[in-house]
Write a structure and sequence with these properties.
The complex is a heterotrimer.
Chain A: H1 2-5, H2 25-44, E1 48-51, H3 61-69, E2 75-79, E3 83-88, E4 94-100, E5 106-113, H4 124-141
Antiparallel strand pairs in A: 1-5, 2-3, 3-4, 4-5
Chain B: H1 11-17, H2 22-35, H3 43-52, E1 57-62, H4 68-74, H5 81-88, E2 90-94, H6 102-115, E3 121-125, E4 128-129, E5 139-140, E6 143-144, H7 145-153, E7 158-162, H8 163-168, H9 170-173, E8 181-182, H10 184-187, E9 193-196, H11 203-216, H12 229-232, H13 243-248, H14 258-261, H15 280-283, H16 325-356, H17 362-368
Parallel strand pairs in B: 1-2, 1-3, 3-7, 7-9
Antiparallel strand pairs in B: 4-8, 5-6
Chain C: H1 4-12, H2 14-37, H3 51-60, H4 66-71, H5 73-92, H6 94-104, H7 113-136, H8 138-143, H9 146-166, H10 173-190, H11 198-216
Helix pairs in contact in C: 1-2, 1-10, 2-10, 3-11, 5-7, 7-9, 9-10
The chains are: A alpha+beta, B alpha/beta, C mainly alpha.
Chain lengths: ~150, ~375, ~220
């Protein structure tokens, strides 16, 4: 087995992933799509999701794209049907949302251009249930039921 | 009945019963959209439809096949979205996967057919000996494949032919086709048939078609070969990341030359990408790790009809499938012989005429007048 | 089931065999006939050798003499353009070279695909120009026969379908590639029996011309 490990794995044409990457056509078109989506977010508030898994990337392209986008200030993790990792990129409003299953395999990888990624926001139906759930818990604790509005 | 039948529950209900939260559900829908090659903006539509979707009953028939298609589906690293989809469909009959055996297994099929008449899906992998060939080449529980397929399809909502064998006849159909193998579409004319070709098909494409039926309650849009356009709408060549090299005329000429190492186009090594329609270039294999061309091997064109008889795998697409230089030489030599013979005959006739020529003098002519 | 892929495989398989056989047999019949019949015997004493002038003429006649050019500049220029374009696309395009290699074992370097595509586009325009010229020029129109139009159509179909296939302008691709191969096969089949034979006989004709002149000691 060790002999297999001795063979180095080279991705791409040997170019190291860096922010000064030589952009190829596929990467450039994705970045232009992001640029237009940002303009829409600023102009009309419309959010956009880009499925990075369905792109005809070559070896190393995805890593180069992620390296180019860089890291922003916000990182979040959601535990629901396996972990989901949210990373703000160096460009405000551009989020990298990585949906993983419980064995840390990628289900989907989206670039989300939004104020806050959808998966971070509470779901409307959950908000509807939230007051009732809280009431029930308060009742169980034994306090007075809060005035209903 | 107090508890509703499992297949009567909506998908939203059964997922919540399994403790899947609404965020989890949203994530499931995002992954499903990705799997079905739909844009992420469709996620909310999918979520709304999935809430109401009912678990379809699926009967999986295996005929002249190698189980590679089932392997493709089940060996994708577990647990994935594919598994979730498989959990939410009710797989009522599958030789390889079901626990029941013998008569109990066949009974399960008949029961599923009765309970869901008109609603169930039939998945077929493998080709089958045609109605006119010897049924003994492939039987299940003493029934010929043809009889079993026709009986099962009778009350089905639709048929999904999984793999190139079921879709086009595949390897059993390859010349000289000893078993008289035919595809599902060759014999099933009265039910909608979806072909999910490939040898094997991409697992996500198999589940993507099932998911489409599950979510929208109808079959996806199909191409001329009954393949779902979402996955088979574009050729390998059109989505290939090595395409720029083709356009620039940079080709690998052997598997270990400079061009091969630099990842240039594999056309000259026999790549059938230009004429092959499949989603390998975007969906990839082994959980999105890679795909044949990325691994440095030309596309075999396995998702196309007669791919086994379409000439050498390592011969360029433009090379004819059977003619050789010897054929041309032979034909040329025959032509030269014929031409030479015709001309020689003509020459000989002229010579003979010349030999028989009897000169006539003016005096002789005048005498005759 | 019969679809575009079956059509492509038919053109690449059985139909190709038929076409290449008819082409090889037909062409060799014609050429063998020409050589075996030969020329009328010349009893006059030769003044010079036949060989060198014969060979030279095979090449020199490629360039039209000034008189011809002055009389019919369109024929010369446009004729040249599309013939060269056709030859470049035929002989220097990767898939064509692979095809020739599979039949003969011979191969040579190719031109990059975009150049071939451009050359093909120019060839198409030139071919259309020749047709318009043929149909509008009063003399040409009168001397043109059905065979002339047939030959033009076949050549144009080969180049056009090749252009469409390379640029993937018709879906599905196997259909347009099959159409290209089929039109090339029709051209191969017609070649020995129409004016297209000039591809081969022009060399013989020029040789005879040059040789006859050389024998008389005249410059050709």
């Amino acid at each position: 087995m060790s002999s297999l490990d001795e063979i180095p794995v080279v991705s791409g044409a040997g170019a190291p992933a860096s922010r000064e990457l030589p952009l190829n056509g596929a990467l450039e078109s994705v970045l232009h799509e992001v640029r237009h989506a940002l303009a829409r977010l600023v102009g009309t508030g419309e959010t956009t999701k880009i499925d990075l898994k369905s792109m005809p990337f070559g070896p190393g392209d995805l890593d180069r794209l992620i390296a180019f986008l860089g890291k922003g200030e916000v990182q979040a993790s959601i535990e629901a049907l396996g972990p989901t990792r949210v990373q703000e990129t160096a460009t405000a409003g551009v989020w990298l949302v990585d949906y993983l299953n419980s064995e840390a395999q990628r289900l989907a990888l989206h670039l989300e251009i939004a104020h806050v990624p959808e998966i971070l926001r509470p779901q409307p139906q959950d908000l509807d249930d939230a007051i009732a759930v809280l009431d029930a818990r308060l009742n169980r604790v034994g306090g007075d039921p809060p005035p209903t509005s | 009945m107090a508890a509703r039948n499992a297949t009567e529950k909506t998908l939203g209900e059964s997922l919540r019963e399994r403790g899947v939260s609404r965020r989890g559900f949203l994530k499931f829908c995002a992954a499903t959209a990705s799997m079905m090659a739909l844009p992420p903006s469709m996620t909310s539509t999918i979520a709304a439809a999935l809430e109401q979707a009912r678990r379809p009953s699926v009967i999986w028939l295996s005929f002249q096949e190698c189980t590679g298609c089932t392997e493709s589906l089940t060996r994708s690293h577990a647990p994935t979205v594919e598994d979730l989809i498989l959990d939410v469909i009710s797989l009522d009959y599958h030789h390889t996967l079901q626990a029941a055996a013998g008569e109990a297994a066949e009974l399960a099929r008949v029961q599923a057919m009765k309970a869901h008449a008109g609603d169930y899906l039939v998945v077929v992998d493998g080709s089958l000996p045609g109605p006119d060939s010897n049924p003994g080449y492939s039987t299940v529980a003493g029934h010929s494949n043809y009889d079993m397929l026709m009986e099962t399809v009778e009350h089905a909502a639709a048929v999904v032919a999984v793999g190139s064998c079921a879709a086009f006849g595949g390897l059993p159909h390859a010349s000289p086709n000893p078993t008289g193998a035919v595809s599902v579409l060759d014999v099933v004319k009265h039910k909608p048939v979806v072909n999910v070709s490939g040898c094997p098909p991409i697992p996500m494409v198999i589940t993507g078609v099932l998911a489409h039926y599950l979510i929208f309650g109808r079959l996806p849009e199909l191409d001329a070969y009954h393949r779902p356009l979402a996955f088979f709408g574009q050729s390998i060549h059109d989505r290939c990341y090595r395409r720029p090299f083709y356009d620039k005329g940079l080709f690998a000429k052997s598997f270990d030359d400079e061009g091969a190492r630099l990842g240039w186009c594999l056309y000259q090594l026999g790549c059938k990408g230009p004429s092959t329609y499949n989603a390998c270039a975007t969906m990839r294999w082994n959980d999105g790790t890679s795909w044949p061309v990325e691994a440095g091997h030309p596309c075999l064109g396995c998702a196309e009809p007669s791919f086994w008889d379409a000439g050498g795998f390592y011969q360029a697409l433009s090379v004819p499938t059977s003619a050789s230089g010897m054929t041309v030489l032979g034909a040329g030599a025959a032509g030269a012989l014929v031409g030479g013979a015709v001309a020689a005959l003509a020459k000989r006739r002229t010579k003979a005429e010349e030999a028989r020529r009897q000169p006539v003098t003016v005096d002789e002519l005048e005498q005759k007048l | 089931m019969s679809g575009s892929m079956e059509f492509l495989l038919w053109t690449k398989g059985p139909m190709f065999n038929v076409a290449i056989a008819i082409f090889a047999i037909g062409l060799l019949v014609r050429i063998a006939e020409i050589f075996v019949l030969g020329r009328e015997r010349n009893y006059a004493e030769p003044r010079a050798s036949e060989w060198l002038p014969g060979l030279r003429t095979v090449f020199t006649r490629t360039v039209a003499d000034p008189g011809t050019f002055k009389r019919a500049p369109f024929n010369v220029v446009v004729g040249w353009v599309w013939h060269i374009g056709f030859l470049i696309a035929l002989l220097l395009f990767v898939p064509h070279i692979k095809l020739i290699e599979s039949l003969t074992g011979l191969s040579w370097p190719a031109l990059p695909n975009p150049i071939i595509s451009m050359v093909t586009a120019v060839t198409l325009v030139a071919l259309i120009a020749t047709l318009i010229h043929r149909m509008t020029h009063p003399v040409k129109r009168r001397i043109s026969t059905i065979e002339d139009y047939l030959v033009w159509t076949v050549v144009f179909a080969v180049v056009l379908t090749g252009f469409l296939a390379f640029n993937r302008m018709i879906n599905p691709y196997p259909l347009v590639l099959g159409m290209h191969i089929l039109s090339a096969e029709i051209m191969l089949i017609l070649l020995p029996f129409t004016k297209l034979t000039h591809i081969f006989t022009l060399f013989i004709a020029r040789w005879y011309n040059g040789a006859a002149f050389g024998r008389k000691g005249v410059q050709s």
